[in-house]
Hints:
Blueprint: H1 12-16, E1 21-23, E2 33-37, H2 39-45, H3 54-60, E3 73-75, E4 79-81, E5 84-86, E6 94-101, E7 107-113, E8 128-129, H4 130-145, E9 152-164, E10 168-178, H5 184-193, H6 196-210, H7 220-242, E11 244-245, E12 267-268, H8 292-314, H9 318-327, H10 329-344, H11 354-365, H12 372-385, H13 388-391, H14 401-412, H15 418-426, H16 436-447, H17 452-461
Antiparallel strand pairs: 1-3, 2-9, 4-5, 6-7, 7-10, 8-10, 9-10, 11-12
Helix pairs in contact: 4-16, 4-17, 5-8, 6-7, 6-8, 7-8, 7-9, 7-10, 8-9, 12-15, 16-17
Amino acid sequence: MTDPAAWRFDNSLIRTLDGFFVPSAAAPAPAPALTVFNDALADKLGLPGHAAGKEALAGWLSGRDTVPGSDPVALAYAGHQFGHFNPQLGDGRALLLGEVIAPDGRRFDLQFKGSGATPFSRQADGKCTLSAALREYLMSEAMAALGVPTTRSLAVCTTGEGVWRDDPHHGAVLTRIAASHLRVGTFEWAAAHKGQEAVERLADYALERHFPERMNAPNRPLALLDAVADAQAALVAKWMALGFVHGVMNTDNVTISGETIDYGPCAVLDAYSSGQVFSSIDKNGRYAFGQQPLVCRWNLYRLASALIEAIAAVNVADTEQARIMLEQWPARYDAHWLREMRSKLGLAAQQEGDIALAQSLFAAIEGQSCDFTRLFRALSASLSEGYGAVAAELADPEALRGWYESWQARLGQEPCDPVQRAAAMEAVNPVYVPRNHLTDAALEAARSGDLDQFSVLLAAVSQPFERRAGLEQFEHGAPDGSPRFVTYCGT
């Protein structure tokens, strides 16, 4: 038995936020097996790794054996789902084991997904399929490698039992790492069920945990709103710069920390379209690619609504500051997005016309069947090869000629060695992303017991910026004539 101190648990949420959780326990896994384990992440967090033995890890991270020092609970939260408020959601298939303290002193949640029913399961089984667990593992680790704030994945264990969805699947438990699992929906739940005092307590806890530099602000609930607004603006700007579609931006899927969470019906763009939707349940395109900044702001209004009484209790005049903050949020988002786009386009200095230049690029490629990821690598290649490298990515080879000349003129205003500029662009524009068709193929093979495709794809997207021999298949979207790609929640 490992010393509980090896897991470095220190469960501040349980000490501080009584009433925001319900003690629960994982369903014992009958025959657990360790499918994939993130040794690098375990080492970073100071957690037991493969040296503890695969059998021990499988027992702990499947729910069969108690993780030493853990105190598992299911968290309560509410949420606006596709615009409609559900006052009672909560961890229906997840368990917060506790918080671990990494060697560098940072605090992280350790959570199971798929470990069985909880008091919030609403008659569901609380289980997870192997495919869904591996999908989140792959996507979250790819996003981390791309430099996007995200939850991480420590392990996937099969449980030795079947899970029925539309057809039978292998059951699995994902172990997720997060800065915390506090959500906009957590504040909505507190406001709906507990009232102002609970919201104030939650706000203080969230601020101290995620934005401690703001704890001395005159109005701490307002300071929290401002911090989350900025963190979410920065996050969604990164999504948009990489062609990532979250797919289900409900308020229960929006973290206070500013991390990407809940990789259900997510996908990456192949052919660019601002209206691209992949999710099978997003019938009206609410969470389409181009809608994500708008939805982010809408979700922040929901956070403001939950915080408004606490803000007013400090200073009623600050409610107007909250309104102005959200009214001006698009400019804040634009600043983050433009920072991302300048890097992608090889621009080091700031000029007034840069946002128009970036926006006109996407207007020009709409309808061009232009691969989002490949386009930006083609732009860097064009610094030595000329416009032909870009033209090869377009349905109409001349569609970007005018924009390209404007971009070249802009580059000329800040002279730089083309080789150095191309290298800087290639350091932020990936070669490899978790392509939708390749991800599906890898998961289907894993379902049949073959993890080779998954392992190769994971290795590719874990080092996304450096082109490597033998990985050419990972540089392209789905072949022409492939069926429309559809994603599902994976529950």
